[in-house]
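User: Some background: our group keeps a shared notebook of sequences we're curious about, and every so often someone picks one and asks for a predicted structure to add to the entry. Today it's my turn. The entry only has the sequence so far, pasted here. Could you supply the structure so I can complete it?
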Amino acid sequence: MWVAALLKHPWPGNVRELRNHVERARNLGRLGMGGSEVDVSIPLKEARARWVQLFESRYLAELLHSHGGNVSAAARAAGIGRVHFTACSAGPDFGK
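Assistant: Of course. Here's the predicted structure to add to the notebook entry:
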């Protein structure tokens, strides 16, 4: 089903668009709440903080992508300041 949807889309000469789409789909699969992805060896507060950080990173990366790399536009869409957006997206795991 997913492959059929990929084949129906024209991908008008934009290999980057296709690559980004595949990477987002792969990352969304990793974000799933499957039991094997939840680390129960750490306290709830730490586990929650990790999930929030992961979500924020992916959310901001997706916003930045959807606004063509325009940080100001992505920050406006997120409802945060540009400086805060830049600080949040500066981590090594941004978008992963």
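Suggested note for the entry: The CA atoms of residues 59 and 95 lie 8 Å apart. The chain has five helices and no strands.
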